[in-house]
Design a protein that fits this description.
heterodimer, A: about 450 residues, alpha+beta, Cytochrome Bc1 Complex, Chain A, domain 1, 6-stranded mixed sheet, 14 helices, globular, B: about 425 residues, 7-stranded mixed sheet, about 40% helix, hydrolase (chain A), MPP/UQCRC_Complex (chain A), Peptidase_M16_C (chain A)
Chain lengths: ~450, ~425
Amino acid sequence: MPGFVTHRRGRFHLHVLATSQFRTRYLDVKLARPLARHHVTATALLPYLWLEGTASLPNMRALMRRADDLYGAMVRTGAGKKGDRQVIEAYASVPEERALRGADGLFDAAAALLTEVITAPAIAGDGFVPEHVEKEKVLHRKRIESIRDDKIQYAMERCLESVCSGHPHGLPRLGYLEDLAHLSGSTLWQEHRALLASADVHVYAIGAFADEGRMAEALLGRLLSAFSPFAAEVRAHAAPPVTALSPRGSEVRHVVEHQPVQQGKLNLGFRTGVSYASPDYPALLVANAVLGGSPTSKLFVNVREKASLAYYASSRLDGLSGVLMVQTGIDAGKYDQALAIICAQVEALKAGEVSEQELAFAKRGLRNQFLQLGDQPLSLADIHFSGALAGVHREVDDLLQALEAVTRADVTRVAQSLALDTIYFLRSEEVGVHAGDPV
Amino acid sequence: MREIPYEQLGLTLYHEQLANGLQVYLLPRPGYRQVYATFTAHYGSVDSAFARDGGPVRTVPDGIAHFLEHKMFESPAGDVFNQFAAHGASANAFTSFDQTTYLFSCTEDVAENIRILLDFVQEPYFTDENVEKEKGIIAQEIRMYEDHPEARSFYGLLKALYHAHPVRTEIAGTVESIGQITKDLLYECYSTFYHPSNMVFFAVGGLDPHALMDLIRDNQAKKSFGPPPRITRVLPDEPADAAAARQETRLAVSQPRCLIGWKEVRVGLAGLDLLRQELLTGMVLDALFGRSADLYHELLDEGVIDPSFTWEYELAPSYGYSLVGGNVSRPEAFIARATAAVARARQEGIPKDVFERSRRKHIGRFLSGLDALGYVARHFTAYHLRQADLFATLDVLLSLRWEDANERLREHFAEERQAVSLVLPRD
């Protein structure tokens, strides 16, 4: 599988994948800084504020029209987290010119636009434009509040919060409602300067480039010059690699929340202590796949197919924090039965009760997922970026080889690292509330 | 096998109709590791009343097409997912208003996986026991959507727009309606709608069209299906106006969600006419409500809407609707402003430069969309069932006229065909 070619200047990394496979060209800029309570909310607000306007496009409408004029260029920004890093992202994609007449230079124009969005946002006086700030504070409040409206996501976030409590990993990726009132154009501008001056910058360029060497040079030059006003702080040392959360020896935390819902959401959060860079990581991927990664997994077969308790029953592994999360949606009255089945499946995994077929299905399924990455440019960038943060250079081909070598003994051994940390349950107050009834 | 070149797109589509009536389309995409394959029955949730070979009209329980889709994954040999897993494929299925699609994506063992797909969809295996067991699973799927603000506001809107057409009913049915489903009813629907002549196979990705067509042809030649049933889809009379002006639901959400919809008056189209109307109406909606529209930014600046705001247009032979909305903090303000903006646009028309910008955007988005094989497969199939060609999109977009857009605007957005759907917080 083709890999990225990296050009590096200090904290700036440009990763280029030149390929004629796609009809789209992608540019994805990721800025990473340590998650910290005091700046998590301000930092999360910044990428949304960037889209409010730039030095040459004074408001969001002008910016959107510019993007539409570039044959509907997608211009998106967002705030996320990976392990204990806050990740601010700005992304643009444009169609390739071959099917378009009179559309030369689209990629350069998109790169210029995206660079301006990040490094030259609209300002007034000593900060961001006050109207922009007030508007985005309102929208950010809604953004945070609306997590509650998707119950599957809400249950996952709440469970994660408990599993990661007391550690920067557990800070919410969008920050806190109570911080919003204290944010102003000037405090946000200071945070913006701090982010641009200190973040590790990873830029991914993917697509068909006539002369990739020249493209890379021009793009890197453009970025370095645009970032230059934000003088880099002298960093005593580079950010350490992201590592997994260690299991804590305490008792399992039980979190129960009540909302008027039709379906209960039961989530189990496990810490594994297995880091992304660990040699055990491929075996943990296989263990997760055996447990709840597909329709042939233990959870799907036993919770859904055999017991008819749920429509979805799965597990997912967050590679950077080493947290494995089981999630399912059940009738609230079936809590005990569902929990017992889930725990029995985890115990079976730990006891080595994994058939040759289960192992083979899990490994082939993962192999298929990783081979398909070659068709998914943004996922490819994301995997590469995870490696960069965890301090491990692992090409997809390396991972495929490592997966191939995983044995049942490896799966059983790594399964011992699953330490149940939190049982989270979202349920209705009482039986018989029909939340979906028309008023 | 016939080759259909699309020179401007740099694509060649391969097509053959097999002796049993099955339509097969294969689209090679050099460079792709994956193959994404779909096998689709022209059968969805709206086909709840039908007659076969001139016989009496049968009305079956709501949600049965979706229930059937779930049950196809059991075979006499066990769970179909195991067969796919043995060859590294990731399999799934979905049911919409008018189609049922079985699919997989894989990067190896393409021939084996295609055989599995063809064989499991053509071998129904229902028992009283496995039908009963599925009811608990689907009941939880229905409950999940009952808590879902997007699903509630969407179905609320269709219930308001439509008096009688089955598009107003949830695709999965209700817990009560699926309770009536039996093994015999499933076999009846299966034998009516899953004849190869009522199906289409489409695969896209890193594939060899000649070898795959041979494989599919051989596979089908070994099976016998009998003569194709003559299907009459029975639909109730549907008045042109909206059934209700407003529909409200309360849920455990943080903020209201509001959709405004317009029922399509010009239905009964197929082929190029359908594609033209769909794209033209989409451009009108984008001009009025898209990310570049004045109204979008006014409402956003005033805190009435948030970036979840979106528009959608759907056009099938027997129904159609547009909708616009999202999370809305002040629904009454939104409804008043959107209605006024539509009325003004009907008077003044869309400026020509706005129309041209929207055209460029639609062209770009269509071309970029070709990279997502799942998107290509889903849309190619949906259009095919409506006798339209997804890959004609670029030509149609280039041919659309500004004057026609303004005419479409005046025709589509009529007050008597407008309805509002609201999801409000419980507390």
